[in-house]
C-alpha cells in the first residue's frame, strides 16, 4: 500500500510518499512560495538526484497537481499511475476539543475543521486548502486528518484550564491545547521500544526543540502536560516566539513602542525569542557560533533556552511524581550536543547524567546517558510523517 502524506503551510506544501509494506519513503519534496513569485518544487526521489522544477503556483490546487505530476514523471517519478496512491494523510494543526485522535475525513469533519479556524487562524486554513485540493483532484482516494493537538487531549482539566473566568472556556473554548502532538507521540512510543519497557509503565519528558519548541509530560503513554497552550506561542522561549511572559507585557510594549494591537501578535511570534535576545539569529547554529566568539547576548540566549527547558523537566517530573527518561527530538534536540549538555547539566537530583562522548552526535538515535544515570537520556529523531502514514493505514 502506498500512502501520500501532505503538510500544507500558507505558502508551502511538504510531502512524502510511503510504501507501507516496509515503511520506506519512495519520494519526498517541497513546493515553496505558493502564491508568490519564484515558486519552485524541490522533488527528491529515493536513490536519485534531487530535481527542482520552477513553475507558477498561484494556489494549493496547482501545488498538488505539480506534486502528483512529479510522482508519476517518467524520468524522476516513483510510481507509474496516480491510482497506486491508496490514501492521503494530512497534517492538521488544530482539532480543538473535537478530535482526540486521527479521523477519516468526510464532509462533517471538514465542517468541524472550519469551526476550529478561529483557534488557529494562521495554520488551519492552509491545511484545509490542501485537503480540498486533493479531494478535487483525487475524489475517490480516502483521506485522513492527523492533528497536532489530538495527543494532548488526555491532559486533565486542572492542567488545561486557565485562571480566567470559566465562561470564556464555555463560550470560546479558551484553554490550553498543546501542540507537536504527533512528534511527542512518536518519540514516546519509540523510547518505550528502546528502553524495552511497556509504555504504560513509563514516565517520560519529551523535548521537541526546534524553531518552535514544546515539552511534554507523557505518563503511561498519555500526554498529561505540554508547554504550549491556547496557541503555540506559550511555553519555552523559541526561535522567534517569546514563549510564556507576564500577561501585561504585551500591553506595556504596545504603549512604549507604539505598536498597534493588530501587529502585536506578529511582533511576539516573529521578533522575539532567541532572535530578540541574541540580536544575531533565530538559527541556533548561528547563535552557538556567535557565543563561541564571545558574543554575550548569544551566550545569554542559549542560557535562557536551556534554563527554561530545565525548569520544565523538573516541573513535569513533579507533576508525574517520577521520571524514567528524558527524550530529545526536533531540529535542535536531535542536532545540538551543546544545548543537550546545557539542559542536562546540574540535574543530578533527578538522576540525569549524560556521557559527553555519547552526546557528541547529530541526527542519530542514541542513548546518551552516562553509566549509572538513574534517568535515561535519549536522542530520537522524530518522524511525524511516518506517524501520519501509520494512522492513515489504520483508519482506512
From TrEMBL:
Mg(2+). Can also accept Mn(2+). Its EC number is 2.7.2.1. The gene is ackA. Keywords: ATP-binding, Cytoplasm, Kinase, Magnesium, Metal-binding, Nucleotide-binding, Transferase. GO terms for molecular function: acetate kinase activity; ATP binding; magnesium ion binding. The record marks 180, 241 as: Transition state stabilizer. It comes from Fervidicola ferrireducens. One of its GO terms (cellular component) is cytoplasm. The keyword Ribonucleoprotein does not apply. The active site is at residue 148. This is Acetate kinase. PANTHER family: ACETATE KINASE, ACETATE KINASE-RELATED. It is found in: Cytoplasm. Its cofactor is Mg(2+); Mn(2+). It holds the Pfam family Acetate_kinase. Mg(2+) binds at residues 7, 384. GO terms for biological process: acetate metabolic process; acetyl-CoA biosynthetic process.
